[in-house]
C-alpha cells in the first residue's frame, strides 16, 4: 500500500477547512496546521484572536524556521500514515513547508484552492470560529502573499480547484482529486 499525503494550500477563506471536512467524512485523517496555533495559544493561556495568533505564528517560525508547522506536525502525520494510505494536511503556506514534506514523505501531492478575494472576505466575516473582519483578512493576505509566498505555490500545485460556487461543485472537484490519487 503506497503512503501519500495531500497538502491543501490556499489563502484564508478559500475553502481549505471545507475541503478538510470533506476528506474527514471519507475517513481520511486530516492534520490541520492552523490548529497547532490554537493548541499553543491554549498552552500559553492566551486568548484566541488574530493578534495573538499572529504573534504565535511568527514566534514559532522565528524559532524553528519557515517549515516549523510541518516539522511540528510530522510525528502526527507519520502516525496516521502507519494506518492509512492517505493523510491530508490542511494549511501548507510556503515553499519551505512543501520542500520539507517532500524530504520526509515518499509521495506528496498538493491542491491549491482558489477563491475570489471578495468571496473569501465574506466567508471570513461569517465564519463561526475565529471570524476576521475585512481589514484583518487583508492584513493576513498581505502577510501570506509577502512573507510566505502562499499564492506562488499555485504554480507548483498538482491540482488547482476554484471554489467560487456551490458545495456540490467543490466536492465534485475534490472527489476528482481523490480518484486521480
What does this protein structure show overall?
This protein is an alpha/beta fold and 181 residues long. The protein has one domain (4-180): Rossmann fold (3-Layer(aba) Sandwich). The protein has helices at 16-25, 33-43, 50-64, 68-83, 95-104, 117-126, 134-148, 167-180, and strands at 4-9, 30-32, 86-92, 107-114, 159-162. The protein has a 5-stranded parallel sheet, sandwiched between helices. Helix 2 packs across helix 3 (50-64). The model has no long low-confidence stretch (mean pLDDT 90).
Provide a concise account of the structure shown:
The chain contains eight helices and five strands.
How big a fraction of the residues is strand?
A: 15-25%
Amino- and carboxy-terminal Cα gap: 13 Å
Q: Quick one: overall form?
A: globular
**Could you name the ranges where pLDDT drops below 50 across 5 or more consecutive residues?**
none
Q: How many β strands by DSSP?
A: 5
Q: In percent, how helical is the residue content?
A: 55-70%
**Radius of gyration from the CA trace?**
16 Å
Strand order of the largest sheet: 2-3-1-4-5
* Biggest sheet details: 5 strands, parallel
Q: For this structure, what is the CATH class? A: Alpha Beta
Q: Secondary-structure element order, as H and E?
A: EHEHHHEHEHHEH
CATH topology: Rossmann fold
Amino acid at each position: 500500500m503506497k503512503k501519500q499525503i495531500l497538502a491543501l494550500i490556499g489563502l484564508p477563506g478559500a475553502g481549505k477547512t471545507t475541503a478538510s471536512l470533506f476528506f474527514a467524512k471519507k475517513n481520511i485523517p486530516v492534520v490541520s496546521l492552523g490548529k497547532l496555533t490554537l493548541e499553543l495559544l491554549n498552552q500559553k493561556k492566551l486568548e484566541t484572536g488574530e493578534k495573538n495568533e499572529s504573534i504565535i505564528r511568527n514566534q514559532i517560525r522565528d524559532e524553528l524556521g519557515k517549515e516549523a508547522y510541518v516539522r511540528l506536525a510530522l510525528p502526527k502525520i507519520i502516525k496516521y500514515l502507519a494506518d492509512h494510505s492517505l493523510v491530508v494536511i490542511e494549511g501548507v503556506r510556503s515553499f519551505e513547508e512543501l520542500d520539507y514534506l517532500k524530504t520526509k514523505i515518499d509521495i506528496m501531492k498538493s491542491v491549491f484552492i482558489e477563491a475570489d478575494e471578495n468571496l473569501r472576505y465574506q466567508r471570513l466575516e461569517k465564519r463561526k470560529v475565529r471570524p476576521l473582519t475585512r481589514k484583518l483578512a487583508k492584513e493576513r493576505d498581505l502577510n501570506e502573499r509577502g512573507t510566505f509566498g502562499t499564492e506562488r505555490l499555485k504554480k507548483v500545485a498538482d491540482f488547482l480547484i476554484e471554489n467560487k460556487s456551490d458545495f456540490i461543485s467543490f466536492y465534485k472537484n475534490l472527489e476528482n482529486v481523490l480518484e486521480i490519487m
